[in-house]
Amino acid sequence: MAHDHHDHDHGQEPPSDIALRVKALDAIVDHFEHKTGPRNGARVVARSWIDPAFRARLQADASAAVAEFGYTGSQGEHMRAVENTPAVHNLVVCTLCSCYPWPVLGLPPVWYKSSAYRARAVIDPRGVLAEFGTKLPDEVEIRVWDSTAELRYLVIPERPAGTEGLDETALAALVTRDGMVGTARV
Amino acid sequence: MGGMHGLGLVAPEADEPVFHADWERRVLALVIASPTRGNIDAGCHQRELIPGAEYLSITYYERWFAALRAMLVSGGFVTEGELASGVALGPKVTPRLSAEAVPAALARQGSYLREGVGAAAFRPGDHVRARNLHPAGHTRLPRYARGRAGVVEAYHGAHVFPDTHAHGRGEDPRPLYTVRFAARELWGPAAPARDSVRLDLWEPYLEPA
């Protein structure tokens, strides 16, 4: 095979067009597999918990606030952060397909894109939450955000009790992807 | 498919990897590098064109691949013959994306917000009803909300209208609103009284209520 030759005649040849195109594809995969993901969102949530000025900016314009961390790019052009409280729980779905805030959460998990989740999150959010082991008191209001490509939603979970002494890094370690979609509490 | 029954339970996978097979990595990267990627609405619609029974029987990245393949052919970037043989016959028409250019390409934003569109018809607090529309093509008005009454919560400016843009009929930007629907309005008296669903809906989907 040609690429197994390492003699002097061939060693200096520039890589082929197709090899360069594949290299670019590998760089795209590397970005989504290793350089973005829910650790980004966890840092945003942790800062929102400890920094009231940042929290205000996040509520006013989530895309701009998230860009302070350098998290920008496609599928995050217009983001909105929705806060859980003791009385309100937020849950995000895309019944149409799979819209998701890529810059802060990366690519969505299989269950988020599944027919079961897309069908049931809007009509039976409490049943879906139970499948994640999440039980909410009946008096808690559930707000389901059936999102599309225009606005991408990030749930800001409630800060757990007993975490007053933790710094931003330790707090971020507590924040899960499911907590930021709303299928779990943190 | 919002509100449909019979599609099973949600099955979260513990410690799920980003990809489950190498070919999924390659499909994701191809879709992002593809010259067809500029129009997200057309991409959505292409996946909706997969026949229903097939759509439900294949995986997410299989749908992406089917849609990519169809759009590359319809866009004139490859022919069915080239896809079948794996050999490019004509000159390569797409400029090469280099690995060095990938970070900038991924950071590039493609906002569909458009300035200079006329005044919005509704304001936060207005009572509206989703029109009973059943277009054959792409729309972002879910079936379960059609004919239902809600309240405008927010106005987001004018955004490219997917119903025309998905079909190559122009951007036609229209005002976009977040509308709150009570769960009971959508699903009947058995739904919890406090719960609600919020949808981002374009003005042509709405009428005063």
Can you tell me about this structure?
The complex is a heterodimer of chains A (186) and B (209). With 186 residues, chain A is α/β, with parallel strands linked by helices. Chain A has one domain: Nitrile Hydratase, Chain A (Alpha-Beta Complex), CATH 3.90.330. Chain A is 46% helix and 12% strand. Chain A is built from eleven helices and four strands; from the N terminus they run H-H-H-H-H-E-E-H-H-H-H-E-E-H-H. In chain A, helix 3 packs across helix 4 (52-60) and helix 8 crosses helix 9 (125-131). Chain B is built from eight helices and six strands; from the N terminus they run H-H-H-H-H-H-E-E-E-H-E-H-E-E. In chain B, helix 1 packs parallel to helix 4 (60-74). The longest helix of chain B has 15 residues, at 60-74. At the A-B interface, helix 2, helix 7, helix 8, helix 9 and strand 3 of A face helix 1, helix 2, helix 6, helix 8 and strand 5 of B. Strand 3 of chain A pairs parallel with strand 5 (196-202) of chain B.
Name the features.
heterodimer; A: 186 residues; alpha/beta; Nitrile Hydratase, Chain A; two-stranded parallel sheet; 11 helices; 4 strands; 12% strand; disordered N terminus; B: 209 residues; alpha+beta
Give a quick summary of the entry.
Chain A is α/β, with parallel strands linked by helices and 186 residues long.
Structural class of chain B: alpha+beta
Order of helices and strands of chain A: HHHHHEEHHHHEEHH
Number of strands of chain A: 4
Query: Could you describe the largest sheet of chain B, including whether it forms a barrel?
Result: 6 strands, antiparallel
Class inferred from helices and paired strands of chain A: alpha/beta
**Average of the residue pLDDT scores of chain A:** 93
Percentage beta strand of chain B: 15-25%
Please give the CATH architecture of chain A. Answer: Alpha-Beta Complex
Q: What's the alpha carbon Rg of chain A, rounded to whole Å?
A: 21 Å
Total count of helical runs of at least 4 residues of chain A: 11
Quote the distance from N terminus to C terminus of chain A: 54 Å
